[in-house]
Amino acid sequence: MHKNEVKPLNKYRKNGSFIRYAKEIPGERVQMDVCKITTGRYQYTAIEDCSRFRVLALYTRRTAKNSINFLERVVEQMTSGGVPLPIQRVQTDRGQEFFAYSFQEKLKEYCIKFRPIKPCSPHLNGKVERSQQTDLQEFYYEMDLTDKKLPLLVEEWQFHYNWYRPHSSLNNKTPMDVVVEKSALTPFWEDIEAKYDESKEKICIQSYKKEKNSLHLSNYTKAEVIPKNILHEKCNFFSISNL
To answer: From CA 100, how far away is CA 134, in angstroms rounded?
Structure first.
């Protein structure tokens, strides 16, 4: 290299420090995702951004119907049993199971805002993605995935995760420790519902470009007929049975 006067390559290393972003108000945002465990076993996961409190459930398929069932489960478990976490926003990837019209309508019923992430941006859903890696490494690694009691064992794991497992991201506290510590900052459901403006919540479509440029389905009332050209654009992203 010296003979040919070639300069050595400079290697740059990223700074080891990083900023960990988290919401300050419990319930402000819930990240939701689906992880395939094995054939016919899909884990739905919801994690509250501030406290890392999670809700888990196993399903045989990832569908709009199962997504709605899981959402109802999440709302119930995050608002009962001493866990005051009124959900303001649900954040998901762009999977079909979350973009179904019926799922988004159910969110509206609960006065929850739907905030899907941009395409090819799994880091924006990093908390739920990382927590599922924890599930695979600490729980499923030792489990018999054909065990009929697996759904029950998942519930026990969820309880352990929320109440007893310390988290480095929480300064070695448990999610329930944070829920209790920040209870004074947590709004009431009545406050969330009062601030919710359904007219501002449009139906999102799975195609990000078309979501930005095309007409939203929510511009039509249920009594109106959607033009064929508009419906044809949407048919690849919505199940007709969900309209």
So the answer is: 29
